[in-house]
Amino acid sequence: MRKKFLDFIENTRDVTPQINKLGTSINKLYDGECFYLFPNVKLESAKILDLGNQLIALNTNADITSVQDECSLIFADLFGNYDMHSFNGQDRVSIGVSEKAKRKCRFCGKGALVKATKDTHL
To answer: Would residue 55 count as lying in a domain?
Structure first.
């Protein structure tokens, strides 16, 4: 299968130079190692974590439940509060509220300070 992937990459690299990265990833795999390939598919963080756990279980002959339990102990709070994004330089991800007056501190929850103007009475 590796040979077929590398032949495909060799035949299409002039048309799609980005495919060279796939060749690098394929060459890093061990013989018999399981992997997923999701071209142009955006997955939520929880799904990425789940798929990663499945690969760990498959590639180490471990029980999927024990892998998931161990991962939950480490990352449950993190993935419950945050979302993971992979930046490729093309997609733009906005974080937070774009309107400055509506922004709040993520630590203390206080709103933005409003500058005093001539019409503002202190």
So the answer is: yes
